[in-house]
Amino acid sequence: MTQDPRLLGRRALLGAASATAALAVTTARAQDAEPEEPAAQPAQGARPGEYLITGAHLLTMDDKLGEIANGAVHVRDGAIVAVGADIQAPGAERIEARGAVVMPGFVDTHWHLWATLARGLGSKGGFDKAMAALAQKFQPQDNVLGVRLSMAEAVHAGITTVCNYAHNIGSPEAARAEWQAMRESGIRGRFYHGHPSDLPKDKLMDLPGLEALAKENKGDGLVSLGVAARGPDRSLAEIWRREWAAARDLDLPISTHVAYSKAVANSGAIKAMADGSFLGPDVQLIHLTQASDDDLRRVADGGSPVGLCPWTEMQVGFGLPPVARIQKQGLPVGLGVDNLALAGNADAFAMMKLTADLAAAVAGEQGTLTERQVLEWATIGGARSIGMEEQIGSLTPGKRADLIMVRMDAVNTAPASRPDITLVRAAQPANVSLVMIEGRIHKRGGRLIGHDTGKLLRDAGAAFSRLQKEAGI
After folding, report:
1. 80 near 73, Cβ under 8 Å?
2. Phi, psi of 95 (to 5 degrees)
3. 224 has which bridge partners?
4. Nearest to 312 by CA among 265, 349, 279, 345
5. Top-level CATH class of 18-104+394-455?
6. Largest CB tally within 10 Å, which of 42, 237, 431, 438?
7. Cα separation, 294 vs 352, whole angstroms
8. Regarding beta strands 100-104 and 106-107, do their DSSP bridges make them parallel or antiparallel, or are they unpaired?
9. Bond from prior residue into 208 cis (ω within 30 degrees of 0)
10. How is 51-87 classified by DSSP, letter by letter?
11. Which of 164, 183, 180 is nearest to 346 (CA)?
């Protein structure tokens, strides 16, 4: 390698590209009556339309545009054309958003999609042993079901970008199946190519398979490629260094778990990465619950972003996410669903509320992390942490049209005198009435579009029952 390894991934990072029927959003072309709900169709195949969303309270998450009461957003050809208080767009389909907030979609920065098929397994004793047995029985079609179920729930929850930390890749076929399932979903994201869950510390991950996928990754789709890499705590030095070097040779961003236990934190893993120039904007660090202040300074100096997953971090005993200390260091932060076999459901609203409250609880002072700040972590901050802030994360003209509408006139959200606080403190996935990704509508009137949820749930249930029997759980 001839380049500074801290900088090798920057180009890839920067260039990678229910509410009730009574509360359903009223849509109409010009002044026509509300149309019938469109039939389900594959979201990836639907052409982006031209829309004018009007009457909304806009939380743009753009520092220059700020909040706009009674604002409008013009979307055309998958992009945000204009944002403001008075916008004209003759011929565009009008979506009336009175009583709602329109904002950028949530950006998930860490999610093991395959494990969603085992939802609820984490509530029983012996989770690690049971999950390990289950993981070994997964076939590529099971990985696909985990991805599809996760993506459907992401849309329901208003999550428009999903980072899949795929650490149960038992074969090249499984990797390709997850990658393809993500691409077919029409949802933006990143596939972090991982390894078999039981891969020995002295064995390399499938680097030829990774290289083959990298050659196919033309940057022309909604899903980019990365590497879910083991660090110093999970493999031998010569192994993890070779895997990271391969990722950087391919100019792929890296994501890794680190400092999630006292033993791992005390092993000097972060210091080893810092000393070897293995930190940088291309290396996302997940958890850091037991990281020392010295290690957090090393991370800040190295320029690595952080992914926090508060629900699972507390449930499995990783410790309290060091929210206030991370904030103090000024680290780029994103939030992650992590593992629905543990966390239960994908709820960015609950994640935001918990994150803000954790900061206050540890600091002993209310308002340590404001609702506005944690809302930024869930949107533009998350986009920044994975190198996509030039494309998504705010309602900025020129960015891609990834946005959501959240009802503020529901029984659990009204009255909403401060929409930003209400979103963090009171809203739920069921309040998300409209989801748009790349200008395509994936949820409308509180209903998913392009997902045969009945068949998906039947297939997922049958697959999990089979896996349980095969694993002896």
Report:
1. yes
2. -120, 115
3. 190
4. 345
5. mainly beta
6. 431
7. 26
8. unpaired
9. no
10. EEEEEEEEE---TTT-EEEEEEEEEETTEEEEEESS-
11. 164
Amino acid letter, residue 33: A
Q: Are 359 and 368 in contact (CB under 8 A)?
A: yes
Residues paired with 434 in a beta bridge: 405, 444
What CA–CA distance (Å, rounded) separates 9 from 6? 7
The pLDDT tens digits for 167-226 are 999 999 999 999 999 999 999 999 999 999 889 999 999 999 999 999 988 777 899 999
Which 3-state string (H, E, C) describes 286-338?
EECCCCCHHHHHHHHHHCCCEEECHHHHHHCCCCCCCHHHHHHHCCCEEECCE
Beta bridge partners of 191: 164, 225
Determine how β-strand 432-437 pairs with β-strand 440-444. antiparallel
Unique residue bearing structure tokens 């309270």: 57
Spell out where 364-431 has E strands.
Answer: 403-407
Average pLDDT over residues 419-436: 97
Residue 389, SS3?
A: coil
Average pLDDT over residues 229-246: 94
Of 436, 344, 455, the residue nearest 95 (C-alpha): 436
Nearest Cα to 449, choosing from 250, 156, 123, 174? 156
Largest Cα separation within the chain, whole Å, is 66
Mind listing the pLDDT tens digit for each residue in 276-322?
999 999 999 999 999 999 999 999 999 999 999 999 999 888 999 99
Q: Are 304 and 5 in contact (CB under 8 A)?
A: no
Which one of 3.40.50.1000, 3.40.50.300, 3.40.980.10, 3.20.20.140 gives the CATH number of domain 106-385? 3.20.20.140
Residues in the chain: 473
For the chain, what are the domain ranges? Answer: 18-104+394-455, 106-385
